[in-house]
């Protein structure tokens, strides 16, 4: 019985990091370092780590330091991190960001249209995008798996 439970747990863990079918990334406008762009346009120049988060999301407290680390370590190699906040009131994000500052771009989606276009199943959910295509989707966040996720992201860089 314990062997069966182990296999089920292993399968569930493997499903958290799923290579997405080569499907187009829904496009949206954003400002990056003062310049207007779109996520698809940006993904033609860099590898985009797009994360959906909310101020009430417990695991997001741990994903923000991880994304800062990605930004600092992999940014010079061509990765850009964009985190989309889905709080209905963007002001709800301020206390969270004061406690867990972001070194990367924060974008707000109070109406949930971007999250809906990406069919976000829960918080946090991250997508890796290149050339307008979703390469990877990762649902949830566990500190214990951060090295594995970072290696997965780095594998897509030149």
Automatic annotation (TrEMBL):
- Record key words, sorted: Signal
Q: What is this protein called?
A: Redoxin domain protein
**Record-linked PANTHER family:** CHROMOSOME UNDETERMINED SCAFFOLD_47, WHOLE GENOME SHOTGUN SEQUENCE, THIOL:DISULFIDE INTERCHANGE PROTEIN DSBE
Q: Does the keyword Signal apply?
A: yes
- Which positions make up the signal peptide? 1-22
Q: Name one GO molecular function term.
A: oxidoreductase activity
Domain Thioredoxin as annotated: residue spans: 19-158
Q: Please, which domain of life does this record's source organism belong to? A: Bacteria
Recorded hits in SUPFAM superfamilies, A to Z, give: Thioredoxin-like
């Amino acid at each position: 019985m314990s062997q069966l439970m182990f296999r089920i747990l292993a399968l569930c863990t493997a499903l958290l990091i799923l290579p997405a079918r080569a499907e187009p990334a829904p496009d949206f406008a954003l400002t990056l370092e003062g310049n207007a762009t779109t996520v698809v346009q940006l993904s033609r120049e860099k590898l985009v780590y797009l994360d959906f988060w909310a101020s009430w999301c417990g695991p997001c407290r741990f994903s923000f330091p991880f994304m800062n680390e990605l930004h600092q370590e992999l940014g010079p190699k061509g990765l850009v991190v964009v985190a989309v906040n889905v709080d209905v009131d963007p002001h709800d994000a301020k206390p969270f960001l004061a406690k867990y500052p972001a070194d990367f771009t924060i974008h707000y989606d109070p109406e949930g249209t971007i999250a809906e276009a990406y069919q976000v199943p829960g918080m946090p959910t991250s997508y890796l995008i290149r050339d307008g295509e979703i390469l990877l989707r990762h649902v949830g966040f566990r500190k214990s798996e951060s090295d594995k996720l970072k290696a997965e992201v780095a594998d897509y860089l030149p």
